[in-house]
Amino acid sequence: MSPTPAKRAVANPAAPARLRVGFILANHFTLTAFSTFVDTLRLAADEGDGSRQILCNWTVMSASGHPVRSSCGIEVLPQAGLSNPAKFDYIAVIGGLLHKGPQIDATTESYLREAAAAGVPLIGVCTGSFVLARARLMSGRRCCVSWYHHRDLIDEFGDIEPISDRIFLVDGDRITCSGGAGAADLAAMLVSRHVGEQSARKSLNVLLFDAPRPASSTQPAPPYVLQGASERVRRASLLMEQSLAEPLAIEAIARRLVMSARQLDRLFQAELGVGPAAVYRAMRVEHGRWMLQGTTRPIADVASLTGFADSAHFSRAFRKQFGMTPSQWRQRLAQGPTELVPSDDTASSERRIF
Fold first, then answer.
1. pLDDT digits (tens, 9 = 90+) for 22-76
2. Does the pLDDT value for residue 165 go beyond 50?
3. Which residue, 154, 155, 189, 280, shows the most beta carbons closer than 10 Å to its own?
4. DSSP single-letter state for residue 217
């Protein structure tokens, strides 16, 4: 006799969905953030690969009904107009490019305020958090934002606390997510909460994620904020921040800011007490320290990913900044949690850059 197959729960098409999410796509939204979020719901919604909206339900809404163009140029056709917010357990705004004109129209912004007044939890994914903030729906809140847009949030909103050391954040009835692959982890958290942990794990396994990551999981790069710096110095530091593995020449950074390398050096010296090259090097070493602590990568790989010619160059710079070698730092970490304090040999102005 053949073995009796194990019984398993079967989704009931007649039962109401346990998790209902309404999506609003901002102009030039990030396709990855949307697709990983909605696919996590899709894979949890039905048995096998049926993709029926049984346990989970999702609706892409729009005030105009016109296709919404993503940042990569692919357009998505909304399924419905702006529906009664009470139909949803959550309304998620998927953001994208910040500086390509209005992200949403006035009608959609009013709809989000209506949803908030009705007590429907709002989710901001990627720069969807900026959409919520511009609608004055994040005042006094903590907001998870990608390290890439950390400074943008600080510059635009003075009453919101930016959090860039985790992948998503639940602050009452506001949930914000840094975007990218983190959208799948956020969606899995919602699936686990409303449908079940096994369904959440199934979704992520099919998407080739090892396991759900908690909200406190760190983003793959930390923010480097130059405290009290002028706009031009911050813009220069952002260019550095975006090119850690393949450092830009200081002359190239200056050209991007329409100034000479000498002018840029004087600006950094006046505001930070050190030149841009020193700031860039400190930034790369700090990023290397973060990778040594947050990953198991070999030191040679860390050196390469922070733009150093080899591990010897990285080790010398690390020792100068922190008073010990990368190997010694990892040995200390193996003994338990510890804080790495900049070396007294490092110039005081350079030690307080970040």
1. 999 999 999 999 999 999 999 999 988 889 999 999 999 999 999 999 999 999 9
2. yes
3. 280
4. P
The pTM of the full predicted model, rounded to 2 decimals, is 0.69
Tokens of 1: 């006799």
CA distance 132 to 18: 25
Task: Look up residue 27 and give its DSSP letter.
Answer: T
Instruction: Read off the tokens for 266.
Output: 């004087």
pLDDT at 6: 35
How many other C-beta atoms lie within 10 A of the C-beta of residue 318?
Answer: 30
Q: Which of 290, 268, 263 is nearest to 280 (CA)?
A: 268
Tokens of 141: 């809140």
35 burial type by CB count under 10 A (0-12 exposed, 13-18 middle, 19+ buried): middle
Helices (H), ranges, 242-275? 250-256, 261-272
The CATH 3.40.50.880 portion of the chain extends over 19-206
259: Cα within 13 Å, side-chain hemisphere: 16
Tokens of 166: 């985790």
Query: Residue 11: what pLDDT?
Result: 65
Token pair, residue 142, equals 């903590």
Two tokens at 282?
């400190």
The predicted pLDDT at position 150 comes to 81
- Buried b / exposed e along 121-134 (16+ C-beta atoms within 10 A): bbbbbbbbbbbbbb
pLDDT in tens, 257-284: 999 999 999 999 998 899 999 999 999 9
Kindly state the helix (H) or strand (E) to which residue 300 belongs, with its residue range: helix 299-305
> Which class is domain 19-206?
alpha beta
Other Cβ atoms closer than 10 A to 116? 19
Q: Per-residue pLDDT tens for 170-183? A: 999 999 999 999 99
Provide CATH code, domain 231-351.
Answer: 1.10.10.60
Q: Tell me: pLDDT of 83 over 80.
A: yes
